[in-house]
Amino acid sequence: MPIHPLRSLPLLALIAATPLAAQVQPAQGLPEADVAPQQAEPSPDAQPGGAGDAPQGQTEQAAPEGAASPEAGTEAAPAGTSVAQAEAEAQALVERPAQPQPEVGADWPFWGGDAQATRYSPLDEITPENVAGLERAFVYRTGDMPSAEADGKYSPETTPLKIGDDLLMCSAMNILISIDAATGEENWRYDPGVPAEAIPYGASCRGVSIYTDPAAAEGTLCATRVIEGTLDAKLVAVDAFTGDPCEGFGENGTVDLWQDIGERVPGWYSVTAPPAVVRGILVTGAQVKDGQAEDAPSGVVRGYDAVTGDLVWAWDLAAPEANRAGPPAGEVYTRGTPNMWTTAVADEELGYVYLPLGNSSVDYYGSNRSEAENAFATSLVALDATTGEEVWHFQTVRHDVWDYDLGSQPTLLDWQGTPAILLPSKQGDLYILDRATGEPLTPMEELTGLPQGDVEPDYISPTQPASAWATLRMPPLEPRDAWGFTAIDQLWCRIQFHRANYEGYFTPPSSDRPWIQYPGYNGGSDWGSVAVDSQRGLIIANYNDVPNYNRLVPRDEVESVPIHEQESGAQAGENAEGAADPQAGSPYGISVNAGWRNEMTGIPCVRPPYGHIRAIDLETGETVWDRPFGTARRNGPFGIPSYLPFDIGTPNNGGSVVTAGGVIFMGAATDNLFRAIDVETGETLWQDVLPAGAQANPITYEVDGRQYVMIAAVGHHFMETGVGDWMIAYALPQ
Amino acid sequence: MTAHEIHHPRRRGNWALTTLAIVCLLLGITLLAGGVWLIVLGGSWYYGIAGLGLLLVGVLLFRRSFAAVWLYLAVWAGTVLWAFWEVGTDWWAQMPRLVGPTLILILVLLCIPALRRR
């Protein structure tokens, strides 16, 4: 296999030069002394094979026997302990010091830009003054277009990394690709062969992660590796410079995440987000297809050794102690628990990983949920990534029956002298929490006297937390917000408004009549997340402003069947999420009219705007500017494009990049435009019409002193923005 | 020949007037029915009233009565007042409120030559 030692040099030199090397001491610079005990103590006793304490002795007994004969190993181990568990326990004892992190600038080394996930770049060649001159530098096509079976299910959401001379990305069906960052020429590709039946709701691969093994010799195969999670629930690791599978990682470069999950049902359990890498541990959750059944795959979050692919720990929120090293032989991780489908953020310094959790598998009915589910659903959870133990959690919705999954990747920042984490939510609230304790640093408020409805009044919480610092949420809807192109379709929507239950934010689900959920499950802020410009002290947040029109469907009226009872995922992905989900095991199915669209015309039942972009003062939480985002050019009644160039404000999916040059880059809207926006004013400075929707996060990087901006024009089935495989790079003319 | 020349434009005017009358009747019936439903649900009375007005305008147009113009002007003026009271200068929100009624206003005004003055 060809190895390119020279190509790896710039990356390694860059890592060696980073000032983070000064932060290798884990507890250094932290104000809270009580944090230290929660971290991995860099103690010599913790070396594997060192002076044995109890768990180590166990490991030494079990592992060699297990290697010879799995059955014997299981018998020899203490009751309920499997070989895998013993191995994981051994893994957990490996000392894992903080490693220097690559920096954003010439490179874009993390899905969120830098290790803090700020989506801020220090590049400043492109400015508001010269941005109008941007031209396409190259266009690369991944070649990954839907097969007949995958037609209408593509939402690639592609965001590459840029490392050294290369752009590294995964396509919709998880083909790993490296291209030259200056020319778009393909270096290599690796196809893990994901079958179309594995597509859960959309074929998405938001991004990849890289890991450089500090122990590996420079230039050896897989010293720097690219890792992705796949739709068929595998972790795949290949060499960053050749694309060859990392043979020492799992089975020939692949770790099977279906291990200990239960019955293998394609499309029910999929990874769409890049794994977080903390102290040499890959942390991943998975998307559990919403609304199928209470008895669904577990939401377990697991940590794997980035070099060997061995399980280091599992965090099963309903059995954190018992299943830390994997479930006992013959059992599975706790079924139906809240999962993490979106992107976590790693904190190399503290050794933590912050998990934005979603909701239980049955989103809209909660009376059957366990106490553990109730405690953790829709929470941000900080785990000690070296041990898999929970440090703190922060819940954004109590007893969530609205599918208000935390969809955004949080951002690490220093807030008024405290290491902090910024958490955006689908409800639109922005929270800033102490990274070490999870305590809010910005003001909170308590909503009280909320309606509890008739379906499960004892379960619905009469109180909810909210951010009193900053929220993207708009005032409640009123009948006058009903909309249409004529008085007649507007009247129809107005009738629907009055026929529904609606008592404002947190109106509980109902079955006798529909209910209006506002904001809907698309946010607020979704997976595109927010960008943070700490130089200017601004948060850049694009967001949706769209209600859903829902109804709980009594069991005897439910026609859809859960995914594991379908013939090979026949219904998968055909409907918008929740459009008609069975929620098997609960008394109700769920019908969701996402965006509350008029059945007759297809246009929304409430007036625009449906999407905005806002700049928020990082000190005060106040809005600096806010405007509708997305033109009406591709939208109109009966699906006919109106070609109206006005910023009506469309739904948007995908985040932004903010640069030191003073320019925000963003696609996201349903108008298939890619734009440059003035960070000071919010004005559009430049735009380009794309061949398909840009429901993806852009990146910016530099090669030979020239700044590039890249966006994926790949379309999105749910956003109805076509389908494509274009990766488009822009730069100023030379 | 003379009779024919006079008669022909008149027939075309009749045809257009009848079409507009049917449109007003259908829109009026639809708005009235939906508007009554909305009133029963506790919503705005605008649609029911405007629907009734439009229905009567349709009837008057069938009768070639000039009163159709005055009545429609009243419906349109009431619509504009109501629309600004509800949503002010939010122009996207004004689209369903003002565009259709104003188009009909233009058509009604164009029919004036074909209507009988008293």
What does this structure look like?
- Chain A is mainly beta.
- Chain A folds into 2 domains: 5-25 and 95-731, Quinoprotein alcohol dehydrogenase-like superfamily (Methanol Dehydrogenase, Chain A), CATH 2.140.10; 43-92, no CATH class.
- Chain A contains 6 helices and 40 strands.
- In chain A, helix 2 (54-68) packs across helix 4 (83-92).
- Chain B has 4 helices and no strands.
- The longest helix of chain B is centred in the N-terminal third of the chain and has 39 residues, at 2-40.
- Classes of the chains: A mainly beta (734), B mainly alpha (118).
How are the SSEs ordered, and which strands pair?
The complex is a heterodimer of chains A (734) and B (118).
Chain A: H1 5-17, H2 54-68, H3 70-76, H4 83-92, E1 120-121, E2 135-141, E3 161-163, E4 166-170, E5 176-180, E6 186-190, E7 209-212, E8 224-229, E9 234-239, E10 254-256, E11 269-270, E12 276-278, E13 281-284, E14 287-288, E15 301-305, E16 311-315, E17 345-347, E18 352-356, H5 371-376, E19 379-384, E20 389-395, E21 411-415, E22 418-424, E23 429-434, E24 444-447, E25 464-467, E26 470-471, H6 487-499, E27 515-517, E28 531-533, E29 538-544, E30 548-554, E31 588-594, E32 611-617, E33 623-628, E34 656-659, E35 663-666, E36 673-678, E37 684-689, E38 699-703, E39 706-715, E40 723-731
Parallel strand pairs in A: 1-34
Antiparallel strand pairs in A: 2-40, 3-4, 4-5, 5-6, 7-8, 8-9, 9-10, 11-14, 12-13, 13-15, 15-16, 17-18, 18-19, 19-20, 21-22, 22-23, 23-26, 24-25, 27-30, 28-29, 29-32, 30-31, 32-33, 34-35, 35-36, 36-37, 38-39, 39-40
Helix pairs in contact in A: 2-3, 2-4
Chain B: H1 2-40, H2 46-62, H3 67-87, H4 91-110
Jot down its keywords.
A: 734 residues; mainly beta; five-stranded mixed beta sheet; four-stranded antiparallel beta sheet; disordered N terminus; B: 118 residues; mainly alpha; 4 helices; 0% strand
